[in-house]
Fold this protein.
Amino acid sequence: MEQETYLSKEEIIHWLKEKDANKLASLYARADKLTRKLFGTKVFFRGIIEFGNSCNKNCYYCGIRKGNEKIFRYLMPKKEIVETALWAYSQGYGSVVLQSGEIDNEKRVELILEVIKEIKKKTNLRITLSLGELLKESYLEFFKAGADRYLLRIETANKSLYEKLHPEGHSFDNRIECVQNLKSIGYQVGTGVMIGLPFQTIEDLAEDILFFKKLDIDMIGMGPFIPNEETPLFSQKQYCMKEDMFQLSLKMIALCRLYLKDVNISATTALQALNRKGREIALSSGANIIMPIITPLKYRQNYLLYPNKPCLDETAEMCKSCIENRIKSVNKNIAYNEPGDPLHFLNNGKIND
Ligand code: 5AD
Ligand code: SF4
């Protein structure tokens, strides 16, 4: 494979500050070229099942934080979670993501174990978990039961910024330790940050990308911070960078592709909250993953981490055909029935270029 040299931190910062549209188009084209070299025209599909919205945490930015008393809390029954995953399988999805707020008790661990075992018994879907910071023993039990991947965003690599965004008892160090535990168990591990947070700087974002490499991450999911009126961080929104957040997010995706190379990068739903074509634009600027929401419709209104979340009233079927068309519009196609394991994981962290 043609040699792609690594960007330096200074170059990353330079690109994050770049305003010239032509120069930016060349950055996106470069990231797209590398993405196509690695994955061809394939976009991998993961169906997200937001199976419960109760959370023991109180992150200052999130709509389902414990302190938000305005939302109705739900937990999908085990049978319905499994049925939703089986539907995804029947539709050719290679993988499902089981996502919920952070609930750390035995009953929940039991539920997850049963769901994993049942799905694995009936399908060869890859199972990704996104359940927050749990005990290493729980991560290990899930892995042994058949879970393949875990998503845990670090939100920012800047510890003092992390502390501004979270109340007491939310530990940056513990979060990083969780990511390391997941890696050491053998999961394919995904992380990410929010882009454009209050008090965040361009240098912070460059550090985030370097930190992903240091953690040897396999998968990246990042999106713009979207102030949510129902949360305490809303009152700090004047301290956000005065940048075009959509462009800044695209730059981050392209730079992650060029710096981390063989990782999976997702075109996140939050991008589409800022631009109608957000996800497909991301898929032509370095992203190679799309995660349609397949949560049954009746629950979706209650899983609002941020406002303007797209696809709230589209059924999973509608979501699928809408996304198919979006992907075709950028000359890519969905890799049905393929697991789409991150090359970074398969290459064991060694890039063959
Ligand atoms: N804007 C954008 N992303 C958010 N998340 C939570 N709240 C917001 C918001 N207001 C993201 C966090 C979390 C993921 C599940 O959703 O990064 O890890
Ligand atoms: Fe809970 Fe995650 Fe929201 Fe924090 S970001 S309140 S841990 S769901």
